[in-house]
Write a structure and sequence with these properties.
Rossmann fold, alpha/beta, seven-stranded mixed sheet, single chain, 3 domains, globular, 17 strands, 645 residues
């Protein structure tokens, strides 16, 4: 059944599937592009989402669906945050209002959501490798279809993209790469590749392309390569120097062309689909095209919450986020300690490090390495060997990509790298690709690491100061997205004692251990249990590793049951660490664990998801009281046992 896009009488026909595009002339397609932009601006003002990236790929997505035949032909969008237009053109237009809402459309492509989503993603650098795999599978199966990978220029700063490029020539399977060049990832792109791509856009006619490209070739490949490139160009007006670079990788280069010229895009794709070799089409687009606030602030409108359409204003909050506090206080610490450096992987705004970058006193010690988490971890390791204090600041979900470096380079060498993992725990409306639910599991078992999580903002700053003062090995902190309870940091932060928990109350019936941002849930549970007449011990563990084993053993020795709370999967999480220690110590006190189940959690409002998956005080109390009401087994005499036998 075709979904309506609520067109008015006499307007464009409904687009219920890509087939509805096939018969539309260019002028109606151009009008359709503007209609899509209006729909996006209006709907995302109510839901939030990745507005800027999607406004930039409207014409591109229409052209792809006009020329190719999805789902037979495969479209892979790197990261896939720019897939909203694709969703609208593949039967989901009437549901675009539900984007990123609980039980609504996912904010990224999702294979189980729709047959046209041939590959799910949420992290950068995946599209080329996956597309190459699909092209190789097509050849093995002797099928006849097209594979098209759409990757932003930021993806070309990403290690997996280069690994895919290195493999293209050896496989030589026909497929199309679209380089969507808009100068931005989440923030302004950095590095040699990004600078080169950005130079191309400085002239609308691309008049200076030859010299800019030639200089780039010389910079990364040497003067001999520039001379070779010049010979390749002789007598060919439309052959551009970038072709030398990409064709060495096995990709025939075309472009750059205007990524908003819809008729030109259609004609170009019609030509490219006939090519029998791997090709790359370089298009120039505007992130946020068609909406002035998004053009003026591309970083803000990469992904944001609800906003006013007229001005682009978002709701202000009096409570600073953990990220904002991080940037503010790390900058303050760096002014006092000239060994402190800050490293981000293309996310200065999201991590709060834009404050560090923009401070003239410390800016020279700020490093944005692009979307290159593995390199960021190695770069931090190199700094640490020389007595510098690197603060490596990466979202929990993206730190997964650097796991080998955490073990092989930082852990084994016991390097004092400070690892700050933003967005730890559930990330809500971004969904399973962005939830930070696995970092305890992948870090707590690595030797030499100290690992912390604060219960509130005040303790968070104390932990940052502790990290700045700690030089005995790697030390990490995880902290949630957004604001906390609003606890104000002290004027002078306190250096915490490594491995020492905080005991809040001391009771004899139930022991509650609330880690990090779920400490408040443990507090709520304590209040309800005390109202029921139970005596409750409440602990803020502070340290995931090393555990305060003495405090945990003392608690277990007096209470009838322990309950742990964590914003993490239960498998190999904090509660698992408590159980392991008590088991090894021969202590039989039962442990109830409140945390996320062994599955990938969907997107949606955090309170709704906590309710659905039993991260509530009611669930905790139900499970705790089962142990409190359970009678201790009666001791049997030898005579009783003999009679049973």
């Amino acid at each position: 059944m075709k979904e309506s896009n609520s067109s008015k009488p006499g307007s464009l026909p409904d687009i219920g599937s890509p087939a509805d595009l096939k018969s539309l002339p260019d002028q109606e397609l151009i009008a359709l592009a503007e209609k899509i932009r209006r729909e996006l601006i209006e709907n995302l003002s109510r839901t939030g989402g990745h507005l800027g990236p999607n406004l930039g790929v409207v014409e591109l997505t229409i052209a792809l669906h006009k020329v190719f035949n999805s789902p037979k032909d495969k479209f892979l969008f790197d990261v896939s945050h720019q897939g909203y237009v694709h969703k609208m053109l593949t039967g989901r237009w009437s549901r675009i209002h539900s984007i990123r809402q609980y039980e609504g459309l996912n904010g990224f492509l999702l294979r189980k959501e729709n047959e046209h989503d041939c590959y799910g993603a949420g992290h950068a650098g995946t599209a080329l490798s996956a597309a190459l795999g699909m092209a190789a599978a097509r050849e093995l199966k002797q099928e006849n279809n097209h594979v098209i990978a759409v990757a932003g220029d930021a993806a070309f700063t990403c290690g997996p993209t280069f690994e895919a490029l290195n493999n293209i020539a050896s496989l030589n399977s026909p497929f199309i790469v679209v380089l969507n060049d808009n100068e931005w990832s989440i923030d302004k792109n950095v590095g040699a590749i990004a600078k080169y791509f950005n130079k191309i856009t400085t002239s609308k006619t691309y008049a200076g392309l030859h010299d800019a490209a030639a200089n780039f070739v010389e910079k990364i490949m040497g003067k001999q390569a520039r001379r070779i490139a010049a010979k390749v160009e002789e007598g060919a007006k439309n052959v551009l120097v970038p072709s030398v670079i990409f064709e060495e990788f096995g990709l025939r280069y075309y472009g750059p062309i205007d990524g908003h010229d819809l008729p030109l895009l259609i004609k170009t794709f019609e030509f490219l689909k006939e090519q029998k070799e791997p090709v790359i089409l370089h298009i120039i687009t505007e992130k946020g095209r068609g909406y002035k606030p998004a053009l003026d602030k591309p970083d803000k409108f990469h992904g944001l919450g609800k906003y006013k359409i007229e001005t682009g204003e978002t709701a202000a909050s009096d409570t600073p986020t953990y990220s904002e506090l991080y940037g503010k206080f790390l900058t303050r610490f760096a002014r006092k300690d000239n060994k402190i450096t800050a490293i981000t992987a293309a996310m200065p705004g999201g991590t709060g490090l834009s404050a560090f970058r923009d401070d003239k006193d410390v800016a020279a010690r700020y490093f944005d390495v692009g979307i290159a988490e593995e390199h960021a971890a190695l770069f931090a390791s190199g700094l640490a060997t020389q007595g510098i204090k690197p603060f490596l600041t990466i979202y929990s979900t993206f730190m997964q990509r650097a796991f080998d470096m955490l073990v092989h380079d930082i852990g084994i060498q016991n390097l004092p790298v400070r690892i700050c993992m933003d967005r730890a725990g559930l990330s809500g409306d971004d969904g399973p690709t962005h939830h930070g639910l696995f970092d305890i599991g992948y870090l707590r078992h690595v030797p030499n690491f100290v690992f912390m999580q604060p219960k509130d903002e005040e303790e968070f700053i104390d932990m940052l100061w502790t990290m700045a003062c700690y030089n005995d090995g790697p030390i990490a902190v995880r902290y949630p997205r957004g604001a906390g309870s609003g606890a104000k940091p002290k004027l002078e932060p306190e250096r915490l004692r490594i491995g020492k928990a905080e005991l809040i109350t001391d009771g004899d019936d139930v022991g509650l251990i609330g880690l990090g941002n779920l400490f408040s849930l443990a507090e709520e549970t304590r209040e309800k249990l005390e109202a029921m007449g139970h005596s409750v011990s409440l602990m803020n563990p502070r340290f995931i590793k090393p555990l305060d084993t003495k405090a945990i053993e003392e608690m277990a020795g007096k209470v009838k049951v322990i309950c742990s709370f964590e914003d993490h999967v239960l498998k190999n999480g904090f509660g698992a660490a408590v159980i392991e220690h008590l088991n090894d110590a021969g202590i039989k006190t039962p442990v109830v664990r409140i945390g996320w189940p062994d599955e990938f959690i969907e997107h949606g409002n955090i309170p709704v998801l906590r309710e659905k998956h039993d991260l509530t005080s009611e669930c905790a109390i139900t499970r705790i009281t089962k142990h409190l009401n359970r009678r201790a087994p009666e001791k049997k005499s030898l005579r009783d046992i003999a009679q049973v036998e």
